[in-house]
Amino acid sequence: AILNLEISKTIIGQGYPANITITVENQVVIAETFNLTLYANTTEIETKEIMLESNANLIVTFTWNTTHFAKGNYNIWAYAEPVPSETDTTDNLLTDGIVTVTIPGDVNGEGTVDIYDLITVAAAYGFTPSSSNWDPNADINGDNIIDIYDLIGVATNFGKTDP
Fold this sequence. Notes:
Helix content: 10-25%
Oligomer: single chain
Distance between the termini: 41 Å
């Protein structure tokens, strides 16, 4: 069963990574091995072979490299291939929602790198995931701190608009 799917960001600059964590569970009394595949729309991001002991949970992390993905909106979902003699497959697929791949520095996903993006990153400067006001979309390079490198990410493409 797929219990949970979480994406680190909802807006990603093209060419930058996003981490996606999936929690899976073996709900039977024998160990099982199966393939877990992560998708963006209909494109496979990655498949991992998972081995779970009986009644065990596992958190699996995927890193989505958006370099070869066109700018646009992607529905992120995961699929656990059924194991032999599995009868309940209703929990083998889970969708998390829409992620926008856009111009690096466009932290609000509106297709332009502008003052609003700069303000968002500057307001979150110094924040990490443990900060109460953490904004993962402002962490342009995905290094878990909003710092000068994220501001440079906005400045590099400032004024650009996605056609």
